[in-house]
């Protein structure tokens, strides 16, 4: 069902990613909640139907579109890909660069309560900044658990896009950090992308110069890899919210 992550090249690249991430300045913390609209250089070609269900992309810089034009962010390109494939969806960008799981937990209620429409699905993409700062995995797990619990309380299905710890964080850290996403996906019956960055790992041509974030081509590679899972999660969420009557 879920393909295992290829360990050796991924872990080697993660080590470089972690070193690059720890040595750079933290990305801006300004709130960047944006819709996937057309932007110069990266037009969204497919119109979004008025009745399209909403997917809220709630995460950090990997969703926000760090150093990319607005139309090149993951939510913008995912929206375009879904609609081009005949899957009606409006993807709202609730990514904040530099967010830890703790910061995201604090803004969750505000973000949800300021949406014009209740999301049919919330994608949660957090944890990378926790790892880069060496925050305790137990803290990361507790914050993500609280986020998922609140979404469950509100009756909103969830999809997790997971993260892996760099091996130079130490074996104990890796052993505590990496299982967080599969365990929480199982606990909350959430869809799971095991490692969000896998399509760009060890592929510098798909990365920004910081060797952490995807460039525009990298975003498209991630969209290609994740779109089928997102479409499946959305279909399941819509069925849960509007079950067909029994014959």
In short:
By secondary structure, this protein is α/β, with parallel strands linked by helices. It contains nine helices and six strands.
What is the CA-CA span between the terminal residues? 31 Å
Radius of gyration, whole Å: 17 Å
Q: In CATH terms, what is the fold-level topology?
A: Rossmann fold
Total separate domains? 1
Do you know the CATH architecture? 3-Layer(aba) Sandwich
Percentage of β-strand residues:
5-15%
Assembly state here? single chain
Q: Supply the CATH class.
A: Alpha Beta
Unreliable stretches, pLDDT < 50, 5 or more residues?
A: 1-12, 18-45
If you had to describe this structure to a student in words, what would you say it looks like?
By secondary structure, the protein is of the alpha/beta class. The chain has a six-stranded mixed sheet with strand order 1-3-2-4-5-6, with helices on both faces. It has nine helices and six strands; from the N terminus they run αββααβαβααβααβα. The longest helix is centred in the last third of the chain and has 26 residues. The protein has a single domain, classed as 3-Layer(aba) Sandwich (Rossmann fold), CATH 3.40.50.1110. Keywords: Hydrolase, Signal.
């Amino acid at each position: 069902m879920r393909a295992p992550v290829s360990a050796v090249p991924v872990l080697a690249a993660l080590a470089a990613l972690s070193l690059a991430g720890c040595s750079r300045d933290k990305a801006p913390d300004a709130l960047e909640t944006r819709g996937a609209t057309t932007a110069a250089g990266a037009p969204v070609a497919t119109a979004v139907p008025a009745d399209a269900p909403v997917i809220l992309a709630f995460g950090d810089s990997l969703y926000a579109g760090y150093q990319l034009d607005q139309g090149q962010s993951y939510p913008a390109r995912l929206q375009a890909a879904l609609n081009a494939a005949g899957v009606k969806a409006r993807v709202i960008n609730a990514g904040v660069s530099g967010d830890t799981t703790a910061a995201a937990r604090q803004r969750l209620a505000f973000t949800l309560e300021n949406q014009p429409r209740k999301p049919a699905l919330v994608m949660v993409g957090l944890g990378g900044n926790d790892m880069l700062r060496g925050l305790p995995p137990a803290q990361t797990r507790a914050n993500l658990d609280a986020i998922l619990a609140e979404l469950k309380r509100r009756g909103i299905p969830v999809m997790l896009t997971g993260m892996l710890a760099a091996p130079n964080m130490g074996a104990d850290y890796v052993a505590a950090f990496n299982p967080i996403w599969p365990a929480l996906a199982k606990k909350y019956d959430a869809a799971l992308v095991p490692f969000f960055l896998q399509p760009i790992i060890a592929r510098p041509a798909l990365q920004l110069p910081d060797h952490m974030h995807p460039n525009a081509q990298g975003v498209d590679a991630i969209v290609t890899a994740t779109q089928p899972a997102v479409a499946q999660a959305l279909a399941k969420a819509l069925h849960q919210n509007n079950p067909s009557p029994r014959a």
